[in-house]
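@channel sequence for tomorrow's demo:
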Amino acid sequence: MQARAPHVRYPHSSGAARPATALPAGACDCHIHAYDSRYPVAAGATLTPPDATMRQYREIQCRLGTQRAVLVTPSTYGADNRPMLDALAQLGEQARGVAVIDGGESDAQLQALHDAGVRGIRLNLSLGVTSTADQIAPLAARIAPLGWHIQLLMAPDLLAGLAPVLSNLPAPIVFDHMARLAPHDVGRHPAHALVLRLLERRRAWIKLSGGYIVSTRRVIDDPALDGLARSFLDAHPDHVVWGSDWPHASASAGMQPMPDDARLIDRLAEWTGPDRLNQVLVHNPAALYGFPA
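structure tokens (generated this afternoon):
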């Protein structure tokens, strides 16, 4: 696929060029969302972006060179997983899902999610309107028999305060958006030390996603992000994955400029170097989400 002309825009993305980095076969984008106005927005939801379809996302895949994706139910829909499941069915075997549950689901309902490709649940304690911190332990126990993980997003102070709970969960933890840590938290905030400790114990995974969100400059080219990203890679490189966070709902809401997805890939390559890029994009997602080797 040739690069688009500069005046042609990719959906929910800035820039028109392809990444300078050639991606390995089976590369996985481990954090995307589907938005569909056919489904109601949860009461109190903060982010209500325009529709983002899998037809549009396939254009992004062609541009970046990724082949696999992980769909995450966004805070917009609360615990309504239908938009995610619809998108998951469209992407097929090369996709997995992360759902939001309230704990009242039956075993049969959870098994149906598993059969559809769901491999984890998310608690968004940052912008979400559905979950609370006291649900972490009971929901982790609920999903552990399925082999799922529990994905968490919260402010660093809350994260640090939950250290006793998070250190003893029966299910693996996935921290998205770099655990919501800012670059200046490296080596200073107790939440950073907690995440590194959980990575080293192989009790947690980290997504190198949302770098432009945690940057104080709100851009992926912030040099201060380098130390944060590499701290996770150095702690345990086989428990690190990457996600674009397409369609960048916070950018649509004006919280930062719309990212260039190709630049997100190139920044990842700068952090990993050539030796770790294949591991982060292919082998680690296969292990975490159960993709074929």
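heads up for whoever presents: The beta strands are 28-32, 68-72, 95-99, 118-124, 149-153, 173-175, 204-208, 240-242.
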